[in-house]
Amino acid sequence: MHMNVERLKVNYKTLEEFKKFKEYGVQELSMLEDLQENIIEDNCDSPFYGIYYGDKLVARMSLYERSAKYDLYFDPPQNYLELWKLEVLPDYQFKGYGKRLVEFAKGFGVPIKTNSRMKSKEFWEKMDFHTVPYDMERDLGQNPLVWHPNEVKDKKPNS
Length: 159
Ligand code: COA
Known about the structure:
alpha+beta; seven-stranded mixed beta sheet; globular
């Protein structure tokens, strides 16, 4: 099966596909508004990447570049990617779509920070993400997880 990761365009079709995802919210609604009011162009690049099954969007994530200037997660501070809204539609979960998207993000070769939702901890562990020491002011209500390209993975036998 092909799992091509595509940069998603902002257009009415993509925004319609987004409605199927649980984490549809302020970001998507403001994209819709910007499109309707011609603030953004039809078919311009969005921060979203996704995988289609036929013509149906079945998995997506959003990636933002963050500057070292505002980095509160890595030591020393560096440019990194913030990954969020990773979601695979229920019928397509556990088939490798989530992993494919995370691997695509890793391909940029910079550190990644994400927030794990409650039940996806095991998934993120499998993707080699780990927690950072808790910082109350920074982490209020969040569960930040990070991945760094230069970290040497402990290779366990049989894994
Ligand atoms: N718990 C435990 N392991 C999980 C998992 C979960 N919730 N989701 C995925 N994994 C494991 C898979 O078994 C697989 O392991 P393997 O490499 O040993 O075979 C690995 O993580 C990669 O899985 P993949 O098929 O790429 O996961 P996915 O495409 O289903 O994407 C999520 C993972 C969490 C992004 C996706 O399931 C999702 O959007 N879920 C909805 C929200 C949520 O958090 N649900 C949790 C279940 S209630």
